[in-house]
UniProtKB/TrEMBL annotation:
It comes from Acinetobacter larvae. GO terms for molecular function: NAD binding; NADP binding; oxidoreductase activity. It holds the Pfam family NAD_binding_2. Residues 4-157 form the 6-phosphogluconate dehydrogenase NADP-binding domain. The keyword Oxidoreductase applies. This is 3-hydroxyisobutyrate dehydrogenase. The active site is at 166. GO terms for biological process: organic acid catabolic process. Residues 160-281 form the 3-hydroxyisobutyrate dehydrogenase-like NAD-binding domain.
Length: 290
């Protein structure tokens, strides 16, 4: 039996992720709000641009939208067929995943929260990490389709667990971004050469994804290329802090980091890369990281 796979949301991530599906599946439907993008995708990658209603015929439906709210809006408009699996790659809200899974269960449709990490380059190279919450049987059924776009495909627990892992991951990334920006501002204030300092730190215990990639490739070279928008990072840190509040935990660093990322997102235009959060510190300290 041929598996029909569909992809909703051809943004910075979705466009590149869906590009791999036609290599593995004979029938791949794509839909995007700005439909010209879906048509361009079809031309470029041999997917099939279809109206939203037709997406409901697919066996496995991926979505990758900014927030759970847009996923809800789409879910109101289509009803997948019984036995279908909805794999939501949005970095969404754990509570929304549980509500969506419950609602779709009535129609015998499984919902997996399956956010990804690896950035647009990981989407391009099919090397993403999928962190998946929800029904394990559905996970195993949808796994080959996720494998077409990723490297590590990890079931992490009940419905909502995938979104929780993603929010905490991005909170930790945001903390590293704040930590590295503060550290390098201090070094610059003391007249230290930042490139040489970076060489040392990347060979030492202070290193992170931020010092290895974001600092040299986005901040110190002043390119700040837009691949992951700052408002999306602010959304992720907010979800992480919501999880903290729900569990009544004491996590002062997470609260502080969320405030800083939120302040940076308010300062910058909406289409700014997450790395421009460093510019909040630059304006406060009057120190440019270059
Ligand atoms: P983009 O802003 O690039 O793309 C958003 C997509 O959602 C577009 O296809 C857009 O359609 C669509 N969309 C927006 N609003 C609506 C709506 N109301 N109804 C229907 N479609 C809508 O986002 P990304 O691809 O960067 O991010 C998508 C998700 O993936 C987010 O949750 C993000 O946090 C997460 N993520 C992003 C990463 C990155 O590096 N960029 C890395 C890992 C996760 P249109 O083209 O019409 O505007």
């Amino acid at each position: 039996m041929t598996t029909t796979v569909a992809f909703i949301g051809l943004g910075a991530m979705g466009y590149r992720m869906a590009a791999h599906l036609p290599k593995h599946f004979a029938q791949v439907y794509v839909w995007n709000r700005n439909f010209a993008k879906a048509q361009q995708h079809a031309q470029q990658y041999q997917s099939q641009a279809v109206p939203l209603a037709q997406i409901a015929d697919a066996d496995i439906i991926f979505s990758c939208l900014p927030t759970s709210q847009q996923v809800d809006e789409i879910l109101q408009q289509i009803q997948p067929k019984a036995g279908a699996i909805w794999v939501d790659c949005t970095s969404g809200e754990p509570q929304a995943a549980r509500a969506q899974a419950e609602r779709l269960q009535q129609f015998e449709v499984a919902f997996l929260d399956a956010p990804v990490s690896g950035q647009t380059i990981g989407a391009e190279n099919a090397s993403l990490t999928f962190m998946v919450g929800g029904d394990e049987h559905a996970f195993h059924q949808a796994r080959p389709a996720m494998q077409a776009m990723g490297q590590l495909i990890q079931h992490v627990g009940h419905s909502g667990a995938g979104f929780a892992v993603k929010a905490v991951n991005n909170m930790m990334m945001a903390m590293h971004l704040c930590a590295a920006t503060e550290g390098f501002s201090t070094l610059k204030a003391h007249g230290v050469n930042l490139d040489k300092a970076l060489n040392c730190i990347n060979a030492s215990s202070g290193q992170s994804f931020i010092t290895q990639h974001a600092l040299p490739e986005r901040i110190l070279n002043r390119s700040f290329p837009l691949t992951f928008a700052l408002p999306l990072l602010a959304k992720d840190t907010r979800i992480a802090v919501d999880l903290v509040h729900q569990a009544k935990l004491v996590t002062p660093l997470m609260g502080l980091c969320q405030s800083l990322i939120q302040a940076a997102a308010q300062q910058q235009p909406a289409d700014s890369d997450f790395s421009t959060a460093a510019q909040l510190y630059e304006s406060l300290n009057k120190i440019k990281l270059e």
